[in-house]
Write a structure and sequence with these properties.
It holds the Pfam family MoeA_N. This protein is 19% helix and 29% strand. The chain has 401 residues and is of the alpha+beta class. The longest helix has 19 residues. Helix 1 crosses helix 6 and helix 3 packs parallel to helix 6. The strands form eight sheets. The protein has a six-stranded mixed β-sheet, with no helix packed on it.
């Protein structure tokens, strides 16, 4: 069995980033990866602007001085010209400073009897109350690098420099299969010995959240010839073949066996609980990942191994994860002989401290444990932990970045 980090590295090393790109509207680019560096074509802001409602003036200026109001500028107006001498210019938040002004005094810091003149109640220095030209980005400045995943903040930045379209990496195409004669689609009659296929919706949902083009090829029976035909056909059209089930050591676990015959298996066991029977390799030149069949194992190994693989395919950083939180356990825990990701939920103790409460039954077939939990805690192998001991906690919401 291989360690988790070694398996991740070995998997990533066999992946070649997608080189095809496409130009798409900015509003459709959420979750996509930039295919090239992006540079600002103009300064943002395009001129010095006021940080608040007040009066633009030429600094330095002394407290107690009186100034005449020479005009007014609103956000969206073109810059005016401040006359020389003891003048101020009425200005509002986001408006460009008039030529000749270099500071803004807040309207709360002046008094005015008739709106035509003001008395300053504080001294002003050059640059006070001003957002300088180019403070956000300068013309010619690189604002985002190739490989950046575009979320709301990045899209807002691109909009601020005037981008209407953006060049992004083509979405990874992933063929998914679930395997097993026992699987029945939800809504169909459940005959004796059958179970509803939950892994299919887990994979489809997770891949959708991660912005992947899904090639859904349904359920594979426990039959070597059918598995062989389906995998070979799928590998002709996708960037990754992904299966769940059929990679352990049972007589009906045929996926790993078939892939080893038509391609290569680089690894098939990970020093991990849940999720030891994980396989990866190639079908021809196309990467293959075979996830274990138990639904919790499918869920955990997807985010540990498939997610970074997808980022690598899209040209992003596969090791982008935020550092885990370090939080105390809410009960004693005796670890097994493998590192274990246990399902936990943050709960507030009477003392006000946030602690991690494990789900009562950590069986890898219980999807109720995943639905109940808000993350997983990593328990090192061969450790006995006491209530209050600190562990690494990985919240689920971080897994969709």
């Amino acid at each position: 069995m291989q360690a988790i980090d070694r398996t991740q590295r070995q998997l990533i090393e066999q992946l070649a980033p997608i080189t095809e790109s496409e130009l798409i509207p900015l509003e459709t680019a959420l979750g996509r990866f930039l295919a090239e560096d992006v540079y600002a074509e103009q300064d943002v802001p395009a001129s010095d602007i006021s940080l608040f409602d007040g009066y633009a003036l030429s600094a330095p200026s002394a407290c107690g001085s009186s100034r005449q109001v020479a005009g007014v500028t609103y956000a969206g107006d073109a810059p005016a010209v401040l006359p020389e001498g003891d003048f101020v210019w009425r200005i509002f938040t986001g408006a460009p400073l008039p030529d000749g002004a270099n500071a803004v005094i807040a309207q709360e810091s002046v008094t005015s009897s008739d709106g035509r003149a003001v008395i300053l109640h504080e001294s002003m220095s050059v640059g006070a109350g001003v957002r300088p030209k180019g403070a956000d980005s300068r013309r010619g400045q690189r604002v985002l690098c190739a490989g950046t995943r575009l979320d709301a903040a990045e899209l807002g930045l691109l909009a601020s420099i005037g981008c209407a379209q953006i060049l992004v990496v083509r979405k990874p195409r992933v063929a998914i299969f679930t395997t097993g004669n026992e699987l029945v689609a939800p809504g169909e009659p459940l005959e004796p010995g059958k179970i509803y296929n939950s892994n299919h919706i887990i994979l489809v949902s997770a891949l959708t959240r991660l912005g992947v083009e899904i090639v859904d090829l349904g359920v594979l029976p426990d039959e070597a010839s059918a598995i062989r035909t389906a995998l070979l056909a799928a590998a002709k059209h996708v960037d990754l073949v992904l299966t769940s089930g059929g990679v352990s050591v049972g007589d009906a676990d045929l996926v790993r066996q078939v892939v080893s015959e038509i391609g290569t298996i680089e690894s098939w066991r990970v020093f991990l609980k849940p999720g030891k029977p994980l396989a990866f390799g190639r079908i021809g030149s196309v990467p293959f990942i075979g996830l274990p069949g138990n639904p919790v194992s499918t869920f955990v190994t997807f985010f540990l191994f498939v997610r970074p693989a997808l980022r690598a395919l899209a040209g992003g950083d596969p090791q982008i994860d935020r550092p885990p939180l370090n939080l105390p356990l809410a009960q004693d825990w005796v670890a097994g002989d493998r590192p274990e990701f246990i399902r936990v939920r943050r709960e507030r103790a009477a003392s006000g401290e946030t602690r991690l409460q494990p789900f009562g039954d950590q069986n890898s077939g219980l999807l109720s444990s995943i639905a109940w939990a808000d993350g997983v805690a990593l328990i090192p192998a061969d450790r006995t932990l006491m209530c209050g001991d600190m562990v690494d906690y990985f919240p689920f919401e971080g897994w969709y970045l």
